[in-house]
Design a protein that fits this description.
The protein has one domain. It is built from two helices and three strands, in the order E-E-E-H-H. Strand 2 and strand 3 form a beta hairpin. 24% of the residues lie in helices and 6% in strands. It is mainly alpha-helical. Bound molecules: zinc ion (ZN). The site of zinc ion (ZN) has 3 residues, from helix 1. The site of zinc ion has 3 residues, from helix 1.
Length: 102
């Protein structure tokens, strides 16, 4: 994990199936959880290509949603919600990836 004490366009990032995460000024524990689960090959909840299920963005309190944003996808102001949940299928996928791909 790399912690950079400067602001960036994002709070952090990682790559799928990687062993690193980069965190910028403004990150929080939800950012660390989100990016760590990307490294463990878990996509966004609204990713229609890689997810088991696809949800409308910013409608859940899932760690892998953009629920913590203070703007919606079109840039309108919204009330941020802290990511705090995972779906059962995400837990199963994380455990499978831990057992068989690392
Ligand atoms: Zn993400």
């Amino acid at each position: 994990m790399y912690f950079i004490g400067e602001e960036a366009s994002w709070n952090g990032f990682s790559y799928f199936n990687s062993k690193f995460g980069v965190y910028f000024e403004g990150h929080n524990k939800g950012t660390v959880a989100h990016e760590t689960m990307h490294a463990m090959r878990l996509p966004h909840t609204f990713d229609g290509l890689r997810g088991e299920f696809t949800y409308k963005a910013q409608q859940t309190d899932n760690f892998m949603d953009y629920c913590h944003w203070s703007q919606d996808i079109e840039g309108n102001v919204r009330t941020p919600v802290e990511g705090r949940t995972l779906f059962r299928w995400q837990m199963i996928k994380l455990n499978y990836n831990l057992k068989y791909t690392h």
